[in-house]
Amino acid sequence: MTDHKPAVVPANYLFPFALVTVLFSLWGFANDITNPMVAAFKNILLISNFESSLVQAAFYGGYCFMAIPAALFIKRYSYKHGILMGLFLYGVGCLLFLPAGASKEFTAFLVAYFVMTCGLSFLETTANPYILSMGPEETATRRLNFAQAFNPLGSLTGMFVAGQFILENLDKTDEVGRASLRDMDPDAFAALQQADLGVIIGPYLILGLVVVAVMVAFLFARLPNTRGEEQHDVRVLATLRRLLANPRYIQGVVAQAFYVGVQIMCWTFIIQYAQNELGMPKTTAQAWNIAAMVIFVSSRFICTYLLKFVDAGRLLMLLAIGGAGTILGTIFIHGTAGLVCLVATSACMSLMFPTIYGIALKGLGPDAKLGAAGLIMAIGGGCLMPPLQGRIMDMDAFDLGFITLSSTRASFVLSLVCFVVIAIYGVLTRTRRAAPGAAGHPAG
Question: Lesser CB count within 10 Å: N end or C end of the chain?
Answer without folding.
Answer: N
